[in-house]
Design brief:
CATH superfamily of the largest domain: P-loop containing nucleotide triphosphate hydrolases
Helix content: 40-55%
Structural class: alpha/beta
Order of helices and strands: HEHHEHEHEHEHHHHH
Distance between the termini: 46 Å
CATH class of the largest domain: Alpha Beta
Shape: elongated
CATH topology of the largest domain: Rossmann fold
Bound molecules: zinc ion
Number of helices: 11
Number of strands: 5
Length: about 290
C-alpha cells in the first residue's frame, strides 16, 4: 500500500507535498518530474491515498478499504491515464471520456477526485490541448498529478498550468537500498555499458558480459536512462573543472543514449535494442 513511507530518497519532494497538505495549499495540478524508477508513481499514489483516507487524513493509513482500493487501482475517484495500444499514447478519446466527461459529475465517494497521468509526454498534442482547459480551471474537488521523465518535451501550456515537484535521481547506493534485487541488474548493466564505452571500440559490450549469463530480463529503458543520468553528471563535473573536451564527449554520448531511450520508449521496451550494439555506437559516435 503506497504511503509516503514507501517513497525513499526523496525528502525534498515529499517535504513540498507534506507542507502543502498540512497548510491545505496543495496545487490542483502537480507535475512530478524526474528519471524513471525514483518513486514518482509511488508518491502520486501515496498523495492520492493521503487525500482519500479517512482513517489517517493527510497521510493515508495504508490499510483501510480506501487505501487498499487505491493501491489496487480499484478506487472510482483515483483514475490513472496510462499509455494505450501499439502507439503507447494516451489518446484524445481517453481524455474526453475519462477526464472531461467524469468532471461533469462530482466524485463518487472521496472528498476529491484525483487523475494520475503516468507519463505526460504520452499525451499527443491534441489530447494535451483537450486537457488544458480542465487543467487550468478544474471543477471543485478535482486534482491532477502528471508525471514525466522529460518535462522539456511537454507543451509549455501544460507545464505552465502545473506546479512542478522535482524528484531527484537516486544515487547508485540509494537505488540498491530502494530497489534491492530488482534494480541491481539494471545498475550493473548501466555500469557495464559505461565501462564498455570508456574502454573503447576494442572492447565491445558483448565481451563484457552485458546482460549475459544472468537470465535476467533487463529493462533496457531503465539501463539507458541510468547511464544517461551518469553521463550528464560527468558532463557537468567536466564543465565545472573547465575540461570542455570531456564535457562535450560526455554530453554527446548522453545525447546518443537519449535518442536510444526514445526508441525504446516508442517500442515499449520490445524494440530489440541491444545494449551491446548501443555500446558500439557510443564508442564510435561519442568519441
Ligand atoms: Zn486508509
Amino acid at each position: 500500500m503506497p504511503t509516503f513511507a514507501d517513497v525513499h530518497g526523496q525528502g525534498r519532494a515529499l517535504g513540498v507535498l507534506r507542507a502543502a497538505l498540512a497548510h491545505a495549499r496543495l496545487h490542483h495540478a502537480l507535475l512530478f518530474t524526474g528519471p524513471a524508477g525514483v518513486g514518482k508513481r509511488t508518491a502520486a499514489l501515496a498523495l492520492a491515498t493521503a487525500l482519500a483516507c479517512e482513517i489517517a487524513p493527510g497521510q493515508g493509513c495504508g490499510a483501510c478499504a480506501t487505501c487498499t482500493r487505491i493501491a489496487e487501482d480499484r478506487h472510482p475517484d483515483v483514475i490513472t491515464l496510462a499509455r494505450e495500444g501499439a502507439a503507447q499514447i494516451i489518446p484524445i478519446e481517453t481524455v474526453r471520456t475519462q477526464v472531461i466527461a467524469a468532471c461533469a459529475m462530482p466524485p463518487h465517494e472521496a472528498r476529491e477526485r484525483v487523475f494520475l497521468v503516468d507519463e505526460a509526454t504520452a499525451l499527443p498534442p491534441a489530447a494535451a490541448n483537450a486537457l488544458l482547459k480542465t487543467l487550468e480551471e478544474p471543477p471543485a474537488r478535482t486534482r491532477f498529478i502528471l508525471m514525466t521523465v522529460a518535462p522539456d518535451q511537454l507543451l509549455p501550456t501544460i507545464r505552465s498550468r502545473c506546479q512542478r515537484v522535482a524528484f531527484a535521481a537516486l544515487s547508485t547506493a540509494a537505488r540498491r537500498a530502494v530497489g534491492g534485487a530488482e534494480v541491481e541488474p539494471v545498475v550493473r548493466a548501466a555500469q557495464a555499458l559505461l565501462d564498455a564505452v570508456d574502454r573503447g571500440p576494442d572492447h565491445p559490450g558483448s565481451a563484457l558480459g552485458l546482460g549475459q549469463g544472468t537470465g535476467e530480463k533487463l529493462d533496457a529503458a531503465a539501463v539507458i536512462e541510468l547511464a544517461a543520468v551518469e553521463l550528464h553528471a560527468r558532463a557537468r563535473a567536466a564543465v565545472a573543472r573547465g575540461d570542455l573536451g570531456a564535457a562535450r564527449l560526455a554530453a554527446g554520448r548522453a545525447g546518443i543514449l537519449l535518442a536510444a531511450h526514445a526508441a525504446v520508449a516508442i517500442h515499449h521496451g520490445h524494440g530489440g535494442v541491444s545494449l551491446e550494439a548501443l555500446a558500439l555506437r557510443l564508442q564510435r559516435g561519442g568519441a
